[in-house]
Design a protein that fits this description.
Elements lengths: L2 H8 L3 E5 L10 H13 L4 E5 L1 H11 L3 E4 L15 H9 L4 E5 L11 H11 L3 E5 L3 H10 L3 E3 L17 H10 L4 E4 L5 H9 L4 E4 L1 H4 L1 H18 L3
Parallel strand pairs: 1-2, 1-8, 2-3, 3-4, 4-5, 5-6, 6-7, 7-8
Helix pairs in contact: 2-3, 4-5
The protein binds N-acetylmannosamine-6-phosphate.
N-acetylmannosamine-6-phosphate binds next to strand 8 and helix 9.
């Protein structure tokens, strides 16, 4: 499939983010690719995955389009989603169809510049680029910089963005009004109703992670409410 076909295969659909961290029981490419296969069985049109090995394994097992990231922490920056050229190149090399990169307006590790990462990837790889943003200005900047897609991933995760319990539907609408490129809805989408609402706001696709692929988080929500209702006598 070429990039245009890949993008149209994602339109109006659900992308499932399959991620686990070192130290967690589900960590590892074998388990993440099984999770991704079950997401495919449920009708997911794409997968979002973290790290070169998960990306390669999920791509080969599911055959679905993969949005690849590589989370790495550096001491000199709070950016951790595909923060430097090193991670971006490794994600492209691993076979991701779309490389997602933190495109927030914050200093990058080693003072790298986002435009240089974009230019480098464009010169070497025929891969689509997704900007993970936290507000509308960052989305506008990302479109100018040449990104193919913008996602609301980082709303609520920068000190200057809205902090909400659910998805940032206002940001989705603002981005849809301001941009020509597709806007993906991502972050804290917890129910099918919220997902369909995001699509009705104009989102091109929705990305759901924790509510589907993080059983400990889902379990804790049940337990917390059960404990709260046992204490107060109300749910
Ligand atoms: C902020 C950040 O680091 N977001 C990450 C990006 O890949 C993931 O941890 C999220 O799970 C993903 O964005 C999906 O969101 P949610 O899990 O809320 O459905």
């Amino acid at each position: 499939m070429n990039n245009i076909d890949i993008l149209s295969s994602l339109k109006g659909g659900l992308i499932v983010s399959c991620q686990a961290y070192p130290g967690e029981i589900l960590f590892g490419s074998d388990i993440m690719s099984k999770m991704a296969l079950e997401a495919k069985n449920g009708g997911a049109v794409g997968i979002r995955a973290n790290s070169p090995s998960d990306i390669a394994e999920i791509k080969s097992k599911t055959g679905l389009p993969v949005i690849g990231i590589w989370k790495e922490r550096y001491a000199d920056s709070s950016i951790y989603i595909t923060p430097t050229l090193r991670e971006a190149e490794a994600v492209a090399e691993a076979g991701a169809d779309i490389v997602a990169i933190d495109a927030t307006d914050r200093p990058r590790p080693g003072q790298e510049r986002l435009e240089d990462i974009v230019a480098f990837l464009r010169s070497r790889y025929n891969v689509m680029l997704m900007a993970d943003v936290s507000n509308v200005q960052e989305g506008i900047q990302a479109e100018k910089m040449g990104f193919d897609i913008v996602s609301t991933t980082l709303s609520g995760y920068t000190p200057y963005s809205r902090s909400l319990e659910g998805p940032d539907t206002e940001l989705i609408s603002e981005l849809v009004k301001s941009l020509k490129i597709p806007v993906f809805a991502e972050g804290r989408i917890q129910t099918p109703d919220q997902a369909t609402f995001c699509l009705r706001q104009g989102a091109y696709s929705v990305v759901v992670g924790s509510a589907i692929t993080r059983p400990q988080t889902i379990t804790k929500k049940f337990v917390d409410l059960i404990l709260k209702s046992a204490v107060t006598g109300t749910a």
